[in-house]
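Lab notebook, bench 4. We co-purified these components, and the gel suggests they stay together. Before we commit to crystallization screens, I want a quick structural picture of the whole thing.
Request: model the full complex, all chains together.
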Amino acid sequence: MRARRSIITCALLLAASASLSPRIFAQRGPAAATKPKPIPRAVDGKPDLSGIWITGALALIVGDEEAKAIAQADVAAGRKPLVREPPPYKPEAEAKRQYYLSRRGIDDPMARCFISGVPRITTRPLPFQIVQMRGQVIILYEAHHAFRIIPTDGRPHPDDIEPSFNGDSVAHWEGDTLVVDVTGFNEKTWLAGVGTIHSDKLHVTERYMRDTYDTILYDVVMEDPDVFTRPWHEHEIFRLRPNERLREYECIENNEDLQRFEKLLEIDPALKK
Amino acid sequence: MKHLLLTVPAAVLLAAPLSAHHSFAAEYDGMQPVTVSGTVAKIEWTNPHIHFFVDVKSDDGAVKQWKFEGYPPNMLVRQGWKRDVTLKVGDTVTVFGWRARFDPNLGAAREVTFADGHKLNAGPPAGTGGQ
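Here is the predicted assembly.
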């Protein structure tokens, strides 16, 4: 009796699975394959930005072929190429930038292994990891072992900020966009390339918006009344690298640049200004 | 011709922020490509750049040692290099890169061709240093 009941049960299960199978396969068919992965959400409902990301000169990180594939995917997805505007410098600041350009970048703080500053550290050709937690977001940069601990619990900037390379960050959410307010910088970094100087009045506002599972749109506004005539906007796309891990990058280990710059200054009259 | 082909994408990249450790143009001349073949004599697998030294024999039999700078180890491993495996002392290689402005036997390596013919990027394309 028990055996007969088992046979019937098995038959019913087989029949049920047979009737379900086409639907199951349909769900795994081409239509499902093209369905984008949902954007992950934290327990508070906000987009979860956690993960390892890269941006900037992708070919330097992932090689020419993969960088080309990413660029082609961008075109297929309808992403427009990022347009870069020159820094809107006041004449005196622009003159300084031109001076640094004429010296071909030998004055670059980064060549001295200083922490690159915000936002330049983001575009270094090395990955960074965002760790989103309750009340704070932590960004770990492979470049220079740098990190930022960014409160998201509503607290203001502290009132005892010491000027620093990466400044002091606090953040809040505007809808699904994380808005990071950064202040308290020293004057020892460049913003986005050779000669992109700033003063200690620099104020940076970063916006992180995870627009797909694989990408974050990064928008940054730099304000500095001492050097800019108006705010300077830059944009980047962060790419998720799920199989990546952060490694060590100790810039000062074998940095020959300073000795080389001394040699160059001795022999190259163009640099003696 | 090979040099010409390799410098075209480099020119395209000039508009993009390279943000490497230092500006390419500070130390190297993107208008002075160089290709040498020889035997690897020494490797410095260090940050912020690796260096490798190649003994190059000239037609008269004299040996000159070239020093090449490349990506840091983190960037090389992401592009397929393995320490002590990909490039070893004694290997025969051909290196394409650009000459330094201040040392006749120093170069920025862009691509290494190994004895079996396969090639790997060893460093960034030439840039102006404008970024």
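Helices of chain B lie at 2-12, 24-27, 73-78. Worth comparing against the SEC data before the next meeting. The first helix of chain B runs from residue 2 to 12.
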